[in-house]
Amino acid sequence: MDGIVQKLLASDTVLNGPESWSHETHRQGRAGHPGPFISLPLARLREIVQLNVVAHLELAHHFGRKLAARGRGGIVLVSAAAAVGGLPYMANDSATKAYPLNLGEALHVELGEAGVDVTVLAPLVVNTGVVARMGIDAVPMPAEPISAEQAVDEAFTALSQHEASTATRAELIAGYEGIKAAVIGSIKERLDAAQAAH
């Protein structure tokens, strides 16, 4: 189990409200390394599944039960525009981003009946350095990247307004199409150049 998940499951401090939260940003740095699916190490693909699927499953189940029992609270799951369609050269990443989006939309209804708000943070492009690390920083993206702080603000605004997601499906699909075009062109060019050098 991921270290941050173990810490959260072992502590109920997050249940005490925003004033007790540390607001510390936890960056895994595991996602955002594109390449042909079959050329990526299986262990690395499993790490991404652990981060984007298993961690969301365990945290949502653990805290969903506790919050439903007390009849109030909120959960934010983290996804991305890539969740609405397969992203070539980032197939596993985009597939695993679909899990928190669909889980969050379903739990928004289920846990909402128990007084618990669930929102999915689904930004188009966040300025975390991942885009630059992937080598597509110069490629026009479908939206101007937002800061991580702005993304968090959007998530908590949506949560406080009882919204299922920070973006509609239509917005996510439009963003996904733009991201797909940018990523495919840039990554394919980089992979072709690397192959020609060998």
Structure description:
The chain is mainly alpha-helical. It has one domain: NAD(P)-binding Rossmann-like Domain (Rossmann fold). Helix content is 52%, strand content 6%. The protein is built from six helices and two strands; from the N terminus they run ααβαβααα. The protein has helices at 3-10, 42-70, 91-110, 130-133, 148-160, 169-197; strands at residues 73-78, 116-121. It has a two-stranded parallel ribbon with strand order 1-2. α2 (42-70) packs parallel to α3 (91-110). The longest helix is centred in the first third of the chain and has 29 residues, at 42-70. Mean pLDDT is 81; it is low at 17-30.
Short account of what is shown:
The chain is mainly alpha-helical.
| Order of adjacent strands in the largest pleated sheet | 1-2
Shape: elongated
CATH hierarchy, class = Alpha Beta
Quote the beta fraction.
5-15%
Number of domains: 1
CATH superfamily: NAD(P)-binding Rossmann-like Domain
Distance between the termini: 38 Å
The helix-strand sequence is: HHEHEHHH
- Tally the beta strands: 2
How would you sum up the major sheet?
2 strands, parallel
